[in-house]
Specification:
- By secondary structure, the chain is of the alpha/beta class.
- It is built from three helices and eight strands.
- The strands form two sheets. The protein has a six-stranded mixed beta sheet, sandwiched between helices.
């Protein structure tokens, strides 16, 4: 299994940013349950969290998932016009495109998933609804479903 830290300039965030990535590139033993076709999961952390708060590593090998772990700071994964940071655009468009071009992953709707916990659950559901042609499946765990201004 490869653990990667990637640093690049994000046009959405208007600065250099880093994300983590896990790729099950050295699977031994049985063929993964999805017949060997690698899927990509964008995993969003919660409030005050970071990329490594929760990573189900054993699932990457069992189901042959690449996991992308971006940092959303405490943004609720939204575009904050006044701050100049566009975390929804970053996750929903820019980061997915970067993963597609650089790693050849997340090429289709059926291969691209998004999931999050708490604030990340809110971000995952909202981003999946805002970018329906990008994410084939979405999950929010204990989602902080905000019904008023953040």
């Amino acid at each position: 299994m490869a653990h990667l830290t990637i640093r690049f300039f994000s046009n959405s965030l208007i600065r250099r940013t880093t994300f983590e990535m896990i790729i099950p590139n050295d699977i031994r033993g049985e063929v993964p349950e999805n017949n060997g076709k690698m899927k990509t999961l964008f995993l969003l952390h919660g409030w005050t969290g970071d990329a490594w708060n929760w990573v189900p590593e054993y699932l990457t090998e069992k189901y042959n998932f690449a996991i992308v772990l971006p940092s959303g700071e405490n943004s609720f994964w939204l575009d904050g016009i006044s701050a100049g940071h566009k975390f929804a655009s970053y996750i929903g468009a820019e980061l997915v495109d970067y993963i597609r071009r650089t790693f050849g992953l997340a090429k289709s709707l059926d291969d691209t998933y998004i999931m999050g916990l708490s604030m990340g659950g809110f971000g995952a559901l909202r981003t999946a609804l805002a970018y329906p042609d990008t994410f084939g499946k979405a999950a929010g765990l204990s989602s902080a479903l905000i019904i008023h201004d953040i």
